């Protein structure tokens, strides 16, 4: 046989296969092909596919199958080869349809159901055909499923075969077939089979069959009809009870998880018990009609937070160097910047009073100073603190008394000495705070104050299978509805359900205080379902929580489920616990927020929005709290609360604590918020040592450092870091003194007071994320951002562009504290752009602070930092201040809600002490910058050689910046993904091979008895082929590297 010049040997083989007339030569060719494909790698099969191998095999199959009495001596090896090749051919389904090979193969199957090997061979081929949905559907329409389903026996001893059949069955389940299977009652039949095999398997010998049946059920419940059928047929109950048996006996563990996932998947969707998904709190926005609520509605919950970068792709990176380099025109005329002169009082102050001991001059900013000096009592009826006290005192069984003396008596008797906190000042500040619901009650922890606990708090260990336990409890709710209490014990919209004493056996809940956001509490059984209020004027962003709970019994575990969380994962699955504050403990001298809660976990539940699409669902945060005292009043929160009133009183305390002759401390209002709350701006610097021109000049030439925080109200950790910063900068620490002499600090500690006050998680009152407004902030709807940006423009215009800008945030998915900065070079490099980064000039000074922090701050992780400019972040403070103001060191500082996985705090949850320390360390790092800036500014910009050195730094890149910090959860948070892997190709190969090698064990096959001969001996080489072909006719050369070259005719002699 000689190869024609243009054809390869393989092509000749393939063409001969289709035209061969006699059995002998067909078998010969099949054997040669199998020899070629059995050795070496998949590359040969791919090559064969590229040369029309699939088509040739299909055509041979059709020809043989159509004969009156198909010859299985040829068909068996042919089917085997087709299964092997087809499995690697993505278009095999389509090719099979085109060759009209699908139905003949099904017919072969139908005619040979009594022959195990023939059945298996047909099933494999049909299985690879089903890689195309249309082929699977075609088979379904031609009763393919029925043929296979009838093959599945009830409980017998022929286990192995049943498993294989079941695997074939679920492979055939295209969407259309699933519907057909459901319509034919297969769900019910599969459930009966599962029950049958479960009941008749005392020795656990048929686990693979039971597992395979669960696979099939998973496949048939991909459509809602399948899920409904499973529920209607009592599937949940069956699965629940069989799972209980499995849990009770050893060796059945592998069945539990698939069954639990199946229950979760089929558990009927349940709308949240709310009248509307919209927040209870609405705020009429200027220029918008009041009846239509603004903000996104009925949108799927997209993760748009700063802290969620793991789903980003590199294509989010800005790769356009010109865009990265360009500086946009200011968004407003220069003339408007004059209004910000007043925010730089230190530059215009003459310090004439330096030598006298008069108070700080407040004349420059009467509007704020007048309001906030904390001396005047609030109007009698503005803040009814007695409400708050009667609320907490009635349940704490302390006798009620009238308003002022009660506060005084409590403070006299129990008053804790908490640094920088004054309860009376807090009350005064709170009285001036304007909220949508007009709070009249204070939460005790905010009023009384908090001290970090004495000892560090380790991350909570996760018990094995805790989520499963919770899910099974949830399933019981469906199975045994009769003992569900289902009593609403708190409803923010229905005042009659608040603080009412008639829920005698229930806990009492309350959240109508600053930062509180519990919307509804339902007593379900031994546990409570809690629903969080959406951010004001919108219908989403549920994550932050803060509420009061009372009327508890001591030493009883209470389970709490927050059932409308939105994020896809949470640090609550990685050792984080909520925080708890006990009034009783505080009155006994332990005013501490403590990490609390056992059996903490976070998983997708079956709730959906009350009116939204059923496709979007929620997550449950569940935790169990065992309270220490009877009839205590306790507070639970996502993280250590820090209210706007706390900030206001803190600033008052700080202002009183400083020596005005040494320290220039000025609190002003940047502007008023939408709700009319002043947004504080604090200036801190050292007073000049004399009023001489030289000293005044030194002061006026100090570089500015601008710090902001809490644009995201749910990130209370940012406020604690800021608290540390403020206290340190006002302290007598020598480093703080040096910093004050070196810099003028401009601090906006709370960019979103309205959000903080009203307990929102992400947004301001306009239902939008303020940290996405920096490019074009709206002066009316986002006043704090508009004026913060205007103030930065002003600093720019007077030549005082900040040396450093940093916006403090909290990060919900990662551990440690870290910085995001901006670097053209690193962004271009990481984006894979063709631009040669070595030729880009960039001042590497943005790395000084993170490098210093890595050295001095134990919670800080340099490896978590990155300096990439993402398109999706281009309207954030960090990027806008960098790009539009030209601030080289423009950062977001992210602090974990959880704790650290490195350094001395490794394995510990952060407390307020560590957060405050971080605020101190950030300030300290600025001092190192002071030394380095001179060097960088003078030399680096002009010398490209120095810049090239920095390329080495790029090696130190945060490589994992796009990865989730955490390994996958031990238990599946989601149930929608099919957790069963499809059988892979190696499985199929070994099955195909096994069909021949184990052939002798099957008694209903006849062919191999005629032909086996020396097959055992040869089986390692060519296990598909029974016989015959003289090996000497083949002259197969093996090349040393990757198998043989089959692209020419060299082996054909
Ligand atoms: Zn944030």
Automatic annotation (TrEMBL):
**InterPro entries documented for this protein:** ARM-like, ARM-type_fold, CBPC1/4, Cytosolic_carboxypeptidase, Pepdidase_M14_N, Peptidase_M14
Which GO annotations describe the biological process of this protein?
proteolysis
Catalyses: (L-glutamyl)(n+1)-gamma-L-glutamyl-L-glutamyl-[protein] + H2O = (L-glutamyl)(n)-gamma-L-glutamyl-L-glutamyl-[protein] + L-glutamate; C-terminal L-alpha-aminoacyl-L-glutamyl-L-glutamyl-[tubulin] + H2O = C-terminal L-alpha-aminoacyl-L-glutamyl-[tubulin] + L-glutamate
Upper classification of the source organism reads: Eukaryota, Metazoa, Chordata, Craniata, Vertebrata
Task: Point to the regions of Basic and acidic residues compositional bias.
Answer: 320-334
Residues forming the catalytic site? 894
Q: Which GO terms describe its cellular component?
A: cytosol
Q: Which CDD domains match?
A: M14_Nna1
Q: Which residues form the Peptidase M14 domain?
A: 640-930
The family annotation for this protein states: Belongs to the peptidase M14 family.
In its UniProt entry, what is this protein called?
tubulin-glutamate carboxypeptidase
Alphabetized PROSITE patterns for the sequence: PEPTIDASE_M14
Tell me the GO molecular function terms: metallocarboxypeptidase activity; zinc ion binding
User: Which prosthetic group or cofactor does it need?
Assistant: Zn(2+)
| The entry's keywords | Carboxypeptidase, Cytoplasm, Hydrolase, Metal-binding, Metalloprotease, Protease, Zinc
Q: What is its main location?
A: cytoplasm
SUPFAM superfamilies in the record, alphabetically?
ARM repeat, Zn-dependent exopeptidases
Where is the signal peptide, in residue numbers?
none
Q: Which Pfam families match?
A: Pepdidase_M14_N, Peptidase_M14, TPR_CCP1_N
Q: What is the annotated localization of this protein?
A: Cytoplasm, Cytosol
What is the E.C. number?
3.4.17.24
């Amino acid at each position: 046989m000689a190869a024609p010049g243009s054809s390869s040997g393989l092509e000749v083989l393939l063409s001969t296969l289709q035209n061969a007339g006699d059995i002998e030569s067909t078998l010969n060719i099949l054997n040669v092909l199998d020899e070629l494909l059995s050795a070496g790698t998949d590359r040969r099969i791919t090559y064969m596919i590229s040369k029309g191998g699939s088509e040739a095999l299909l055509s041979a199959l059709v020809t043989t199958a159509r004969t009156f009495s198909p010859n299985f001596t040829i068909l068996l090896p042919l089917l085997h080869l087709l299964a092997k090749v087809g499995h690697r051919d993505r278009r095999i389904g389509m090719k099979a349809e085109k060759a009209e090979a699908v139905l003949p193969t099904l017919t072969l199957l139908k005619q040979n159901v009594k022959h195990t090997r023939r059945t298996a061979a047909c099933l494999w081929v049909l299985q690879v055909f089903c890689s195309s949905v249309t082929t699977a559907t075609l088979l379904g329409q031609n009763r393919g499923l029925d043929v296979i389903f009838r093959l599945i026996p009830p409980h017998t001893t022929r286990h192995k075969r049943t498993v294989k059949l079941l695997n074939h069955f679920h492979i055939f389940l295209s969407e259309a077939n699933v519907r057909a299977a459901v319509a034919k009652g297969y769900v019910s039949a599969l459930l009966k089979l599962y029950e049958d095999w479960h009941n008749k398997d005392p020795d656990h010998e048929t686990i693979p069959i039971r597992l395979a049946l669960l696979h099939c059920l998973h496949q048939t419940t991909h459509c809602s009809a399948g899920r409904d059928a499973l529920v209607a047929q009592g599937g949940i109950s069956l699965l629940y009870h069989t799972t209980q048996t499995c849990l009770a006996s050893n060796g059945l563990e592998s069945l539990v998880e698939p069954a639990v996932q199946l229950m979760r998947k089929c558990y009927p969707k349940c709308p949240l018990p709310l009248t509307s998904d919209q927040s209870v709190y609405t705020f009429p926005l200027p220029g918008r009609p009041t009846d239509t609520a603004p903000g996104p509605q009925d949108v799927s919950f997209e993760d748009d937070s700063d802290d969620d970068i793991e789903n980003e792709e590199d294509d989010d990176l800005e790769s356009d160097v010109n865009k990265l380099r360009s500086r946009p025109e200011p968004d407003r005329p220069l003339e408007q910047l004059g209004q910000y002169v007043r925010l730089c009082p230190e530059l215009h102050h003459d310090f004439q009073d330096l030598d006298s001991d008069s108070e700080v001059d407040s004349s420059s900013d009467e509007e704020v100073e007048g309001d906030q000096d904390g001396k005047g009592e609030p109007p009698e009826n503005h803040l009814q603190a007695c409400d708050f006290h009667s609320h907490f005192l009635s349940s704490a069984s302390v006798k009620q008394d009238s308003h002022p003396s009660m506060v005084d008596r409590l403070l006299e008797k129990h008053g804790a000495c908490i640094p920088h906190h004054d309860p009376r000042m807090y009350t005064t500040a709170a009285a001036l705070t304007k909220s949508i619901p007009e709070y009249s009650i204070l939460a005790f922890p905010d009023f009384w104050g908090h001290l970090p606990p004495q000892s560090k708090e380790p991350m909570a260990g996760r018990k094995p299978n805790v989520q499963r336990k919770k899910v099974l409890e949830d399933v019981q709710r469906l199975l045994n509805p009769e003992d569900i209490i289902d009593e609403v014990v708190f409803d923010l919209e229905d005042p009659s359900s608040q603080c009412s004493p008639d829920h005698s056996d229930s806990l009492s809940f309350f959240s109508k205080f600053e930062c509180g956001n519990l919307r509804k509490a339902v007593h379900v059984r031994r546990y409570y379902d809690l629903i969080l209020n959406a951010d004001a004027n919108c219908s989403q962003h549920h994550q932050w929580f803060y509420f009061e709970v009372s009327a508890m019994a001591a030493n009883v575990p209470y389970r709490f489920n927050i059932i409308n969380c939105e994020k896809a994962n949470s640090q609550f699955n990685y050792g984080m616990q909520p925080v708890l504050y006990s009034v009783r403990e505080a009155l006994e001298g332990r005013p501490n927020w403590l990490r609390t809660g056992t059996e903490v976990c976070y998983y997708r539940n079956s709730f959906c929005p009350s009116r939204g699409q059923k496709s979007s669902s929620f997550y449950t945060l569940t935790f169990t709290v065992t309270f220490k005292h009877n009839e205590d009043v306790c507070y639970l929160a996502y993280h250590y609360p820090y209210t706007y009133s706390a900030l206001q009183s803190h600033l008052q305390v700080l202002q009183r604590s400083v020596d005005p002759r040494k320290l220039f401390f000025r609190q002003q209002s940047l502007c008023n918020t939408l709700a009319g709350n002043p947004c504080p701006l604090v200036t801190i610097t050292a007073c000049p040592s004399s009023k001489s021109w030289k000293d005044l000049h030194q002061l006026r030439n100090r570089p500015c450092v601008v710090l902001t925080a809490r644009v995201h109200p749910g990130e209370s950790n940012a406020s604690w870091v800021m608290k540390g910063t403020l206290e340190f900068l006002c302290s007598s620490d020598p480093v703080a003194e040096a910093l004050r002499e070196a810099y003028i600090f401009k601090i906006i500690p709370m960019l979103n007071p309205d959000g903080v006050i009203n307990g929102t998680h992400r947004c301001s009152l306009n239902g939008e994320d303020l940290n996405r407004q920096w490019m074009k902030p709206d002066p009316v709807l986002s006043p704090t951002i508009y004026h913060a940006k205007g103030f930065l423009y002003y600093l720019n215009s007077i030549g005082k562009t900040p040396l450093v800008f940093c916006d403090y945030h909290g990060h919900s998915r990662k551990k440690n504290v870290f910085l995001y900065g901006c670097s053209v070079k690193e962004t271009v490099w990481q984006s894979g752009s063709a631009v040669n980064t070595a030729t880009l000039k960039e001042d590497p000074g943005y790395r000084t602070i993170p490098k210093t922090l890595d050295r001095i701050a134990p919670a800080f992780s340099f490896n978590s930092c990155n300096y990439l400019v993402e398109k999706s972040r281009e309207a954030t403070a960090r990027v806008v201040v960098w790009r539009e103001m030209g601030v080289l060191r423009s950062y977001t500082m992210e602090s974990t809600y959880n704790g650290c996985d490195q350094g001395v705090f490794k394995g510990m949850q952060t407390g307020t002490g560590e957060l405050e320390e971080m605020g101190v360390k950030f300030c300290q790092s600025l001092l190192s910058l002071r030394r380095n800036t001179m060097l960088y500014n003078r030399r680096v910009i002009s010398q490209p050689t120095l810049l090239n050195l920095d390329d080495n730094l790029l090696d130190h890149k945060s490589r994992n910046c796009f990865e989730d910090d955490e390994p996958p959860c031990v238990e599946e948070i989601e149930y929608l993904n099919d957790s069963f892997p499809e059988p892979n190709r190696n499985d199929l190969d070994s099955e195909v091979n096994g069909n021949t090698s184990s052939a002798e064990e099957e008694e209903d096959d006849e062919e191999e008895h005629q032909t086996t001969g020396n097959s055992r001996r040869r089986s390692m080489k060519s296990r598909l082929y029974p016989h015959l072909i003289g090996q000497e006719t083949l002259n197969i050369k093996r090349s040393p590297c990757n198998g043989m070259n089959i692209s020419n005719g060299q082996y054909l002699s």
